[in-house]
Design a protein that fits this description.
GO molecular function: Delta4-3-oxosteroid 5beta-reductase activity
Helix content: 25-40%
Strand content: 5-15%
Family: Belongs to the aldo/keto reductase family.
Number of domains: 1
CATH architecture: Alpha-Beta Barrel
Protein name: NADP-dependent oxidoreductase domain-containing protein
Largest sheet: 8 strands, parallel
Strand order of the largest sheet: 3-4-5-6-7-8-9-10
Oligomer: single chain
CATH topology: TIM Barrel
CATH class: Alpha Beta
CATH superfamily: NADP-dependent oxidoreductase domain
Organism: Knipowitschia caucasica
Number of helices: 10
């Protein structure tokens, strides 16, 4: 498949398509000035991005939606050109909360439907509008998880036309199989959004998902910030890796562009997050070069099997996904 800036979508198992590169829109709500997400999404769409990855829990879907609508109204894109992914947060897993939560996202975006709606984590929290519920001792309050019941509520949202495709995020093989083997399954997950980059290439999960016709969407495809409150700092900064540096020099590209190209060449979608206009454009500029088989192999050889995003604060949750091998 030849990938170009205009045409780089991958087919999904339900007949829809997903652009292989998207813009991640997460920003710490306490530290991100108003308007930042709006400007980033506008710049991204102007640069050629057609895939926007967002979430209710990012607290900026109103800005993201306004940017999408403004780029539609000025003629830059049509609604059908844009692929928006929204996410169901941990406090909204009970079936009766699923549709109202999706409708909240649609209301924030001011759109009639989203292209993909995914279960953000397999870990249910105490239901309600407190997104990170804790008890008096500061311990997270969990909720009994029934992933199949949550999935059935999502299927109803798809049947109602509120979402075109359904997927998951941070699911391991066992959790995917719970859904895939569910009696009466109507709509299978088309994608699984997980951490994926040259230091964490996910070979086993990738192979399993390929067999099941599930597209892997790689978050943190450039590594992550070095915020010690949630990032595993035992892992060295990936973009300074000597192998990536030498391949980047050869192609007159940045190590970030090489890391992104590596994933899209193996059919893994990427959603690098940036609010910096120069970097947003740079991250999209990965369609004018190609990595050789030898370079792909060398980058695959960098796998350290170490996560940057471990989410250890939830490691005692019965459905914490990262205890399993994959």
């Amino acid at each position: 498949m030849e990938l170009t800036a205009e045409s780089h979508s991958i087919p999904l198992s339900d007949g829809n398509k997903m652009p292989l590169i998207g813009l991640g829109t997460y920003g710490n709500p306490q530290q991100t000035p108003k308007g930042t997400s709006y400007n980033a999404v506008k710049v991204a769409i102007e640069a050629g991005y057609r895939h926007i990855d967002g979430a209710l829990v990012y607290f900026n879907e109103d800005e993201v939606g306004r940017a999408i609508r403004d780029k539609i109204s000025d003629g830059t894109v049509k609604r059908e050109d844009i692929f928006y992914c929204g996410k169901l947060w941990n406090t909204f897993h009970p079936p009766h909360l699923v549709r109202p939560t999706l409708e909240k996202t649609l209301h924030m975006l001011q759109l009639d439907n989203v292209d993909l709606y995914i279960v953000e984590m397999p870990t249910a929290f105490k239901p309600g509008d407190v997104y990170y519920p804790k008890d008096d001792n500061g311990k997270y309050i969990y909720h009994e998880t029934d992933l199949c019941a949550t999935w059935e509520a999502l299927e109803e949202c798809k049947d109602a036309g509120l979402v075109k495709s359904l997927g998951v995020s941070n699911f391991n093989r066992r959790q995917l199989e719970l859904i895939l083997n569910k009696p009466g399954l109507k709509h299978k997950p088309v994608s699984n959004q997980v951490e994926c980059h040259p230091y964490f290439t996910q070979p086993k999960l990738l192979e399993y998902c390929r067999q099941k016709d599930i597209v892997i969407v790689g978050y943190s495809p450039l590594g992550t910030s070095r915020d010690p409150s949630w990032v595993n700092l035992k892992c060295p900064p990936m973009l300074e890796d000597e192998v990536l540096v030498s391949i980047a020099k050869k192609h007159k590209k940045t190590t970030a562009q090489v890391a992104l190209r590596f994933n899209i060449q193996r059919g893994v979608a990427v959603i690098p997050k940036s609010f910096n206009a120069t970097r947003i454009k740079e991250n999209f500029s990965i369609f004018d070069f190609c990595l050789s088989d030898a370079e792909m192999e060398a980058i695959e050889g960098l796998n350290k099997n170490i996560r940057f995003v471990e989410l250890l604060m939830w490691a005692d949750h019965p459905e914490y996904p990262f205890h399993d091998d994959y």
